[in-house]
């Protein structure tokens, strides 16, 4: 089969990708089974459980990535392009979840940073050195890395507030909790950081990064829905959601102009498209 001509090449790295992913998958399932919130500190920017459904989508897409790496094109993009970055991403996220399960929140914060740096490096490589040649490149390589990049950026903020923020569910605080000036400053900086990432997705390239923008908006929506009935947090997060929707529109427009025609040609066939144009 032509598409699998190089199936035996770099088999060690392919197997390591699979093994490290299975460890990542098992740890994530264990974490979900025991409740994603655990006994963590519920800070002013703690996202609700529904937001963490992003993990499920990431895992499903990475299963496709592991299958795709055995094809010739998949080998070129994943094995030759990303190399050892992918198993490192799996390893760091597994370690992050391990410390989450054991409620070691400072370690969670540190490994959230490490994982975010690793994902950012892979994201940069894909955006600068690889252009998707087919739908599988887009769906099974670029999409999961884009989602994970946006998600891991949020996890750095989430873990920072969990490790160092005030617990708003504490009975002594819940009735009277009002963020002081420093807390408000950190909340605004965190939301602005997410908005800057969203703006980068929309404006860095002509086609934008639609899935990255949607992920950031989903996170902000989750934060806005929770809000802890703290007026300042509710207002700030809902304004952030509105701004992020604008960036979704920008990326959607760029995707339609730059990527949709390419995938449309692939789906309906070049000959059919040329015939219709001649008519």
Strand residues, percent: under 5%
Q: How much is the average pLDDT? A: 84
In the predicted model, the low-confidence regions spanning at least 5 consecutive residues are: 270-279
Give helix % range: over 70%
Task: Describe the global form.
Answer: globular
Q: How many helix segments? A: 12
Structural class of the secondary structure composition?
A: mainly alpha
Largest sheet: none
Write the H/E string, N to C. HHHHHHHHHHHH
- Taking the alpha carbons of the first and last residues, their distance comes to 37 Å
Radius of gyration, in Å, reads 21 Å
Total count of strands: 0
How would you describe this structure to a colleague?
The chain has 279 residues and is mainly α. It has a domain at 2-193. It has helices at residues 11-33, 54-68, 72-82, 85-101, 105-129, 135-164, 171-174, 181-203, 210-226, 231-258, 260-268, 270-278. The longest helix has 30 residues, at 135-164. The radius of gyration is 21 Å and the shape is globular. It starts with 10 loop residues before the first helix and ends with a helix. The model is unreliable at 270-279 (pLDDT under 50).
